[in-house]
TrEMBL record:
Record protein name field: ThuA domain-containing protein
Pfam families: ThuA
SUPFAM superfamilies registered for this protein in UniProt: Class I glutamine amidotransferase-like
Cross-referenced InterPro entries: Class_I_gatase-like (IPR029062), ThuA-like (IPR029010)
Span of the signal peptide: none
Native organism taxonomy: Bacteria, Bacillati, Actinomycetota, Actinomycetes, Micrococcales
Residue stretches spanning the membrane: none
Occurrences of domain ThuA-like (ranges): 5-229
């Protein structure tokens, strides 16, 4: 039997496919020796006994809300050593009204620049751009991203507001376009880690849909990131 426990918490906006995307990684977690529990509500965070026994939280909850009690449980668990990992809006655009959650994560979705107005069909692909994920010097050496070269995607390109307490493993740059109001290129973190108390936090911004997460580079980064964040991985 395994003594590694993962808690998958999913919900929020359906446009990010929280069920389908998390199901993609359940076999990997189980193969990696985790006993996996799936919850459709973040209220599980308020259960101190469950949280104390959890080595890794994988969260996919875009927007939505979190109660005071649930957030306190989440933050306390991370500070005590529980890992927290996720992708795209499921972690970087959760609980917009909770400034303490934004502080915990270290980076928050601000926007995803769109295609030229004349090329927008009026659906979610309005914001699909071809862009590059560029490894930083740290990223070329870090165990999550080592051996992964810069790579390209066509999907939402997140513009992220962030602080200096994150360790950035990869970035993406938003170019100047005549139909956007900014006047110089803006570089945002695309993959980062964060130390919070005794816990580790891992975030990767690509992951709008299952096909993006199935990209070999993105999938490898997510899988390695979950293992890196897990408390069990650090103590076994």
């Amino acid at each position: 039997m395994t003594d590694r426990r993962a808690l998958v918490v999913r919900g929020g906006w359906d446009g990010h496919h929280p069920v389908e995307t998390t199901e993609l990684f359940l076999p990997f977690l189980e193969k990696s020796g985790f006993d996996v529990r799936v919850e459709e509500s973040n209220e599980i965070y308020a259960d101190a006994e469950v949280m104390a026994a959890t080595d890794l939280i994988v969260q996919s909850v875009t927007m939505s809300e979190i109660s005071k009690e649930a957030f306190a449980g989440l933050r306390s668990a991370v500070e005590a050593g529980t890992g927290l990992a996720g992708w795209h809006g499921g972690i970087a655009d959760s609980y917009r009204a909770n400034s303490d959650y934004l502080h915990l994560i270290g980076g928050q979705f601000a926007t995803h620049p769109g295609r030229p107005p004349a090329e927008r069909p009026g659906d979610e692909t309005d914001n699909y751009l071809s862009y590059t994920v560029d490894m930083t010097e740290l990223g070329r050496e870090h165990e999550i991203t080592a051996g992964i070269s810069d790579f390209s995607l066509t999907t939402e390109q997140y513009w992220v507001l962030h602080d200096d307490l994150i360790d950035v493993l990869a970035t993406t740059t938003h170019p100047v376009q005549p139909y956007h109001p900014w006047h110089r290129p803006v570089t945002s973190p695309a993959v980062w880690t964060r130390q919070w108390g005794a816990g580790r936090i891992f975030v990767v911004t690509p992951g709008h849909s299952v096909d993006v997460l199935e990209d070999p580079n993105v999938r490898t980064i997510v899988e390695r990131g979950m293992l890196w964040a897990s408390r069990a991985a650090r103590t076994s």
